[in-house]
Design brief:
With about 475 residues, this protein is mainly alpha-helical. Among the domains are: about 80 residues, no CATH class; about 240 residues, no CATH class. It is built from 23 helices and no strands. Helix 2 runs antiparallel to helix 17, helix 5 packs parallel to helix 8 and helix 7 runs antiparallel to helix 8. The longest helix is centred in the C-terminal third of the chain and has 31 residues.
């Protein structure tokens, strides 16, 4: 075992042993505490990565299932361990990679990328704003941010860095890393800005209606976050440019060079047209067919047609290691995060947190509960799972507090679903896809997630709370 491997292996083990040696907190079953100890060790392992993340995830579910930390017996434990692979978002992420492969194999991705470079490529920051504008245009119509960011925008923008000689690895910082983070952070903003840009937003409103008997309209949601959302949207490409700058900042010859490259590509081929038609069909179905066809089912159906029409071959699909690696990695993390809910840790955590706030001024309680709800997303691998598991608990807690501005607190809690989607590599479908691109280094991803997360949360609480309080008054 080399020194680097040893150094990165010891901290996860130390966290696991230390938490196991600590008595379980009052009100929490010892088995739930033991599961949390294992989960915490996995998270530390994912940060340090002594071995590939997929192996760490598999190790975590294997240990938990073998010791029956989740489930009443061997059958229940293995059912839980494999549950992540039946999650619709996991398969939507997988298919999004295959869409990207289709854009690459047909040449359509390169053609679109060259066209963007032709008009906007003189400045790298101009390409960043093109990515932001694309997400903004699609945001109001696509409730699945994985379909929007991962299935529609990512497969196109992944072709742009390669034009400038920027590939995953040593040359990633030339341009690719900047564009990938801009794409993810922008997706987080649009997921917050529009009620219909993120499925957990709609779920949150349903839970608010059932728990608090309060209704919130699309217009009310939009106007309640508009000033801050607009600020975030405009700031993301520039902020990324400052905090995570690309090495290639401008290229005066980019436009003419792109024209020459497009001429070399010649006329649009039949396969390019076919890929464009299938992508357009998927986009239309994602926007308009949500009431009768799930976004993941749309993606899988289109993937099947891609193979049947030879846009990509079955061998292409089997050989795309990056997609299969992401399937295993995210599938195990979804199961591990869900395990926290199953063993009762999350309900205990939410109850203990709200209990500590008793006696504080009302507005302080609102701010602290929103901050805790936001930060606890580090323990989740799904925005929907986060809302499903904890939002009812937090809503019940605020409902029990006298003089609590229920609508204010409820809307603030729901708004955090979008902006928390870029906290970690596993925080959401889009984060897994952009991380899996290989352009953003593991340490950089965690650092950027924490930095942008802090900036977003700070501005959200300092500016968003007073504004929304004024708007609703």
């Amino acid at each position: 075992m080399n020194r680097k491997l040893l150094v990165n292996t010891l901290p996860p083990l130390a966290v696991w042993v230390l938490l196991l040696a600590t008595p379980s907190p009052q009100g929490l079953a010892p088995s739930a505490w033991h599961y949390f100890a294992m989960f915490a060790a996995v998270i530390v392992g994912l940060i340090l990565e002594p071995v590939p993340g997929s192996i760490i995830g598999l190790l975590g579910v294997s240990v938990a299932a073998a010791f029956q930390l989740v489930g009443a017996g061997p059958a229940d434990s293995v059912k839980w361990a494999l549950s992540g692979f039946s999650n619709s978002t996991v398969w939507l992420i997988f298919v999004a990679y295959m869409f990207g492969l289709g854009y690459e194999k047909t040449g359509l991705g390169r053609r679109i990328a060259l066209t963007l470079v032709r008009f906007l490529g003189k400045k790298t920051i101009g390409l960043g704003y093109a990515v932001a504008l694309s997400d903004l245009c699609l945001g109001p119509f696509m409730p699945s941010n994985t379909a929007r960011g991962g299935g529609t925008i990512y497969p196109i923008i992944k072709n742009i860095p390669e034009i400038f000689g920027s590939y995953p690895g040593e040359t990633a910082r030339k341009m690719g890393a900047y564009l990938m983070w801009t794409g993810l952070a922008t997706c987080a903003v649009t997921s917050t800005l529009f009620l219909t840009a993120n499925a957990p937003n709609l779920l949150g409103l349903e839970l608010i209606g059932k728990t608090l008997k309060i209704g919130i309209s699309w217009r009310e949601w939009f106007l309640g976050i508009l000033p801050l959302g607009a600020l975030f949207l405009v700031a993301v490409p520039l902020l990324t440019y400052v905090l995570y700058p690309p090495e290639i900042k401008s290229s005066k010859e980019a436009g003419s060079w792109a024209v020459a490259e497009l001429a070399k590509m010649g006329k649009v081929t039949r396969k390019e047209l076919l890929m464009a038609a299938l992508a357009f069909i998927a986009l239309v179905l994602w926007i308009f067919a949500g009431s009768w066809m799930d976004a993941t089912m749309v993606a899988i159906a289109v993937l099947v047609v891609m193979v049947l029409t030879k846009v990509i071959t079955w061998d292409d699909l089997l050989g795309y290691r990056q997609a299969w690696n992401m399937l295993v990695w995210f599938g195990t993390l979804v199961a591990l995060a869900d395990g926290l809910k199953i063993v009762g840790f999350l309900n205990w955590f939410a109850g203990a947190t709200s209990g500590l706030m008793t006696g504080l001024p009302i507005l302080w309680i609102v701010v602290l509960m929103v901050a805790v709800y936001y930060l606890v997303h580090y323990m989740f691998a799904s925005l929907t799972a986060h809302a499903t598991a904890l939002l009812p608990v937090f809503l019940a807690a605020i409902a029990a507090i006298p003089d609590m501005p229920l609508k204010l607190a409820a809307m603030l809690l729901c708004y955090t679903s979008g902006i928390s989607s870029m906290l970690t590599p596993y925080a959401s479908g889009p984060s897994a896809i952009y991380y899996g691109s290989g352009y953003i280094d593991r340490k950089d991803f965690w650092r950027l997630g924490a930095t942008f997360g802090f900036i977003f949360l700070s501005l959200f609480l300092l500016l968003g709370v007073p504004y929304l309080n004024w708007y609703l008054s």
